[in-house]
Amino acid sequence: MLSSGGIRAHLLAARLAGVVATPREESLRSYRLFAARDPRVLIGLDPERSWGQRDLIALMADKCGVSADPRCVSGHDVIDPERTVAALDAFADRLASVAQRGAAVLLGTGHPHRLLGFYAALADALSAAGCEVLTPAQGHCVDITTRFGLRTHTLHYVRGVAVVREAGGERAGCATGVHSHSPLPVRVALDAAAEGAGRLPELVIGDHGWVCGAGQLGFETIGPADTDDPALFVGEAEGVVSVAVPLDDGVRSDYYRPLTRYVLNRACLSQ
């Protein structure tokens, strides 16, 4: 079992925390777009207050450990591993709470090539603990605006985790799913769950639009976020997101396995 010190060492070795690959320039660009309320960066969140770029830098310094100096405009961002460990502990506590109640949960990712294994292991453990892992709107179409224009995607579940695929994606070798920040897939899934005879989730676990989109609709949400994803941390600050875990969300998929073991052990869930 990994201790807090052990997971901290792994975070630094895998560059999930510490100096991460995300460029400072990219993060600052996201903060500027968020301050302008660009929907590409809001990813489903409708902030209550006005967030300027300096406000966001201060928030991200507090939540993630990035530089609080607005004059720092280049280089790689930094995530404080202690903040990541504390957030992983809070994440595990929410898993333990829903597992104790046998609650319904919904899992989805916009990072299927990186984080699908992480979420799938959580889905397996929660199911084994008596939770219902929901799969609403399987096969439903979702029109998502991409840099190539409006594209039709379909919602699918892989090992209990929702992903979106472009039409013909399986033939094109994208059966796992595509990268997406859109909140539309979770809205489609939650609408289908509400219209059907099944249960609504008591917890939504995911990233990007899955967290912000569901949180904005009043569902409890938890998930990881990088330094260029301010929406999740703003959502946490405003009480819309329950737990946002600061970490690099784009490293090799196997680097997340120790995080899986850590949160499941802390939540007293089987693996």
From TrEMBL:
<dbReference type="InterPro" id="IPR031423">
    <property type="entry name" value="Phosphatase_SCO2771"/>
</dbReference>
<dbReference type="Pfam" id="PF15698">
    <property type="entry name" value="Phosphatase"/>
</dbReference>
<protein>
    <submittedName>
        <fullName>Phosphatase</fullName>
    </submittedName>
</protein>
